[in-house]
Here is the input.
Amino acid sequence: MLALRVVDWNDVLGNKAAWNTLIWFGTLVTLAAGLTRVNIVQWLGGSIADALGGMSINMTVILLVSAFFIVHYFFASITAHAAALMPVFLGIGLAIPNFPLLPYALLLSYSLGLMGVLTPYATGPAPVYYASGYISRRDFWLYGAIFGAIFLAALLGLVFPYLMMLHG
Here is the structure.
């Protein structure tokens, strides 16, 4: 776009929000890659897997997917959440013997599409809905919790058994 003069360099420099997003996402992705490279993900996965020892596989999957979903309250985007936590949660699954890794990975991935309802900052469109004023702050958080619980229950109550049946 610069070469074809669709935008000039001042337009690029003037878009502070885009640069801010790029820097933060780049930092989070780099941090996640670095943690994986120095085996922190494997270590954390093994530690949590040991703590979950003795639980049934199904209960372990339900607890881990629920934790992955709920922890999104602490992240300002799904991309940052996935970049920072997906390797950790997959590492936990890898560290558990006879763990249904494919259904588990699919559940984690599917939950990313559902968690956008949780907060006014959960995903890109959420701030637009919130800023429109159509939904009050209190109601946004309340509806986010209600629909988040419904979506998580449907994911774990309907999709999880189906995936386990396919995994056989």
User: Anything to note?
Assistant: The chain has eight helices and no strands. The first helix runs from residue 9 to 14.
